[in-house]
Design goal:
With about 160 residues, the chain is mainly alpha-helical. Helices cover about 80% and strands about 0% of the residues. It has one domain.
């Protein structure tokens, strides 16, 4: 739902969903509008990439016949949210608030899932929690990477 709202907000603000056009117009847009769009895209990515508060579906869906099938499921499906964040990075760069929230969500997810995985008895749940933890690390890295890129960009202007 949030992903759809984010796309509708992009259409309303930019007039298109063409990323090349959006990326060229984004520096000139209102920062609060960019933050709202970034947070809506983040919520969509959180649901797909099983981040904290929206993580319950992954351990349940990985109860397939073998651990290998659950690994294939985890490796192919849940990374779509991360791809969305990486693909929309030129929009995220203009919202320090969204980058901070992305970093916090990723770090909380990785810590929570790793801690929960230590207490699991079923191998499939352990794999699921390990997958969620690794996805949290990736989301945290996205927030830190673009924040670092923004700092370097501002430093070179001085």
């Amino acid at each position: 739902m949030c992903l759809s709202l984010g796309f509708f907000a992009m259409i309303f603000l930019f007039g298109t969903l063409d990323f090349d056009t959006i990326f060229s117009i984004a520096p000139y847009m209102n920062s609060s509008s960019i933050t709202i769009i970034s947070l809506l895209l983040l919520l969509g990515a959180m649901a797909k990439s099983s981040q904290i508060f929206l993580h319950n579906w992954l351990p349940g869906s990985m109860e397939g016949p073998t651990p290998v099938s659950s690994l294939i499921h985890a490796a192919t499906l849940v990374t779509a949210g991360l791809y969305l964040l990486m693909r929309s990075s030129p929009i995220l760069e203009y919202s320090s608030t969204a980058l901070f929230i992305i970093t916090i969500i990723g770090s909380l997810t990785s810590f929570f899932a790793a801690s929960t995985g230590l207490l699991q008895n079923d191998i499939k749940r352990i794999i699921a929690m390990s997958t969620i933890s690794q996805l949290g690390y990736m989301v945290m890295a996205i927030g830190l990477l673009f924040k670092l890129r923004l700092i370097v960009k501002n430093f070179t202007k001085c």
